Amino acid sequence: MNEQTIKAERREETGSSAARRLRRNGKIPAVVYGHKEDAVPIQLDAEDVNQIFAHRMMMVSLKTGRTTDQVLVKEVQLDPFGEEILHLDFERVAMDEVVEIECPVEFVGTPKGAAAGGVTEHPVTDLTVQCLPGDIPENISVRVSELEIGDTIIVGDIEAPEGVEIITEPEAVLITIRPPEELEEEEEELLVEEPELIGREEDEEEVEEGEAPERSEETG
Amino acid sequence: MPLMPKRIQHRKTQRGRIKGKARRGNTVAFGDSGLQSLEPGWITARQLEAARVAISHFLAREGRLWIRIFPHKSTTSRPAESRMGKGKGEPEQWVARIKPGTVVIEVGGVPEDLAVQALNRAAHKLPLRMKMVHRRHAW
Predict the structure, then answer these.
(1) A87 has a chain B CB within 8 A of its CB
(2) Which A-chain residues 11-70 have CB contacts (< 8 A) with chain B?
């Protein structure tokens, strides 16, 4: 796993307006916490932050003034379009202390079942793992090329790399090859026209009362 | 059959205003790729159905589709050549209110190039500008 020293400055102003001002000036607000020390608001250069994000660096050496902390990138906040980084959370860690992180799963190969017309579904794309900061894996590879239609791999089936313990529940489905769905008949659908129902009881009574004479006129 | 609510409290609603960006439902959560709205507006149940049909016809029996929005809001219209007044028109169609950033449709279980082509066809059926987005790993 990559590790890099990044310079940070202590941030005096806090709050959304101050954070917005910072971002306009090419800085990204962040916070460092953990190890029973106070949470410290900091600011980083946007370029450094983009590098952290692009290379998915989990561990970083953060130099704030004279002190250098080994920190884990705990959370990255993005804007609704997933384009801009808004804020970062760093957690101080000791190198001999176990940390809990989300680790991406990489599927290796194309399942045989998918080539035969099956639909690949992978509801879980990240696993929660526990390991020492030095052992953080970039991803956990799962070989899927032998999977046929109807086959499933659950979290309990995969082997964790050395020094890594998987915390995600073992019954969680990692990947499954589903048989292809039957095509729906659209002609049948066009004929069905469902009337809306009024939710409130009072309204229903009113509607029923109001509609009753009309019905009697029609029938009569 | 276009989507519509099963039970509602009021038949007619005021138009309202769409403010802000989507703070929820702005990431691909089920499939591998999706369409994200870049502007606010309404998507009608018919447009959504057209997009769904475009994708399912293109992908035939492959892959899976998720529609992440639902048309909860009714819109009314007046009969043709009718004078103004005499109250609000009758409910005509159902629409989903879309904030910028909302992921509207997702596709999964197909190669990325196929998913992109399918979503491109669907985007042409929708009235708002859309962006192709892919699933991101959790941090």
Answers:
(1) no
(2) 56
Position of tokens 């910072």?
A: A22
Quote the domain boundaries for residue B71.
41-76+90-134
Specify whether the CB–CB gap between A100 and A58 falls below 8 A.
Answer: no
Quote the number of domains for chain B. 1
Is the per-residue pLDDT at A44 higher than 80? yes
pLDDT above 50 (res A218)? no
| C-beta atoms of A81 and B137 within 8 A | no
Quick check: B138 and A120 CB within 8 A? no
Task: Report whether pLDDT(B118) > 60.
Answer: yes
| pLDDT, position A154 | 92
Query: Could you tell me the CATH number of the domain that includes residue A111?
Result: 2.170.120.20
Comparing CA positions, the residue from B90, B98, B102, B99 lying closest to residue B133 is B102
In a domain, B8, yes or no: no
pLDDT digits (tens, 9 = 90+) for A152-189: 999 998 888 888 999 999 999 999 998 877 655 554 45
A111, A144 Cβ separation under 8 angstroms = yes
In a domain, B47, yes or no: yes
What torsion, rounded to 10 degrees, do the Cα atoms A195, A200, A202, A207 define?
A: -10
Identify the weakest region by mean pLDDT among A109-123, B58-72, B94-108, B110-124: A109-123
> Per-residue pLDDT averaged across B28-35, rounded?
94
Domain of residue A160, residue span: 100-178
Task: Specify if A190 maps to a domain.
Answer: no
Residue where a domain terminates, one of A93, A123, A149: A93
CA dihedral A104, A110, A115, A117 (to 10 degrees): -10
The letter for the amino acid at B124 is H
Please indicate, yes or no, whether residues A171 and A119 belong to a single structural domain of this protein.
yes
Q: Has residue A208 got a pLDDT over 80?
A: no
Which two tokens mark A36?
């029973």
CATH of the domain at A19: 2.40.240.10
Instruction: Give domain status of residue B120, yes or no.
Output: yes
A204 touches chain B (CB under 8 A): no
